[in-house]
Write a structure and sequence with these properties.
It contains 3 helices and 11 strands. By secondary structure, it is mainly beta. Strand 1 and strand 2 form a beta hairpin. The relative contact order is 0.24.
Length: 147
């Protein structure tokens, strides 16, 4: 009986919930290196429009991109809630992603996540999770930060 229970253990993953436009997105916390307030971004010529430029974070120069522009959502007004989330993935250099705001950290039971298909036009989302009264679209960071 104990073996039967151990094989049914659900995988629970921590996600940080962010707002971008009117949508809520989840970013797997294992990829988040840091969350910093908005700061001066130095523009870089001849880069895709979603790249806003670079920042100097404790002596390290990091590229910064707008999640809104990358996802095809009109850019909003900059405000005090905007944050730059520093993402570090195995095969990529660290990159900053501008989001409208950071809400909370949630534990998501991966067995309850509804998968999405690329055909539905959601190439940046791997699935959707229902948390309390809201839906959280789980971001595919590989798709978001790839060129």
């Amino acid at each position: 009986m104990a073996n039967e229970l151990s094989t049914n253990v659900e995988e629970v993953v921590q996600y940080i919930v962010i707002n971008s436009g009117d949508e809520q997105f989840g970013i797997d916390i294992k990829y988040i290196d840091n969350i910093v307030r908005m700061q001066h971004i130095t523009r870089v010529p001849k880069v895709p429009c979603y790249f806003k430029g670079v920042i100097n974070l404790r002596g390290e120069v990091l590229p910064v991109m707008s999640l809104r522009i990358k996802m095809g959502v009109p850019e909003g007004e900059e405000n005090k809630d905007n944050r730059i989330i520093i993402i570090k993935m195995d095969q990529h250099e660290a990159i900053g992603v501008i989001v409208d705001s950071v809400k909370e950290v949630v534990n998501i039971d991966m067995s309850t996540v509804e998968r999405t298909s690329v055909e539905s036009g959601t190439q940046f989302v791997t699935g959707v999770s229902k948390q309390k009264d809201s839906l959280i679209s789980l971001l595919d960071l590989h798709a978001v930060i790839s060129e």
